[in-house]
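Box 3.1 A note on notation
Throughout this textbook, protein chains are presented in two layers. The first layer is the amino acid sequence; the second is a token string describing backbone geometry. Keep the layers aligned when reading.
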Amino acid sequence: MAAGSNVDAERNLQLAAAAMAREFAPVRFSPAYRNTAVGFEGEDFVNFVMGFRTSLGVHEVIDRLQHIEALCGRSRDAPKWAPRSMDLDILLFGDRVCDEPGLVLPRPDLVRRPYMLGPMADLAPGVLHPTLGVTIGELWARFDRDAHPMARIPLALAAPESAEA
């Protein structure tokens, strides 16, 4: 699961992390990274990746993610390439592979966007990409990081035990 924001980013990401910890505990968080906006001119984004186990189906998880995005001020009708108070995206859902309207798994951007792949490699380098057959760590080791630099930043994210409303 990827999280990103460029509107009051640190506050919104902390709010989303706490909500994710309440909803899907236990949740593990990668370090956070600052990077430039992709696809439009705007403030820098802050991104991180999180992982959790769930017995919910993928569409139920999507519904809960959209609720958390709304808690952070995201409107469902906001333009795709624009500033975001919160963007939560499923990158992998176990080893599920699907291509249906509104849902492609694994997320194709995962292997093209350093702000998704890098934090995922921090969090779960040994996870096997379900269609490429190599680990996330291997994909990150091969990635051209100079094309889209990121800077690791300190960001306190809620642990499941300390998440509060």
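The chain has one domain: 2-153. The two ends are 21 Å apart (CA to CA).
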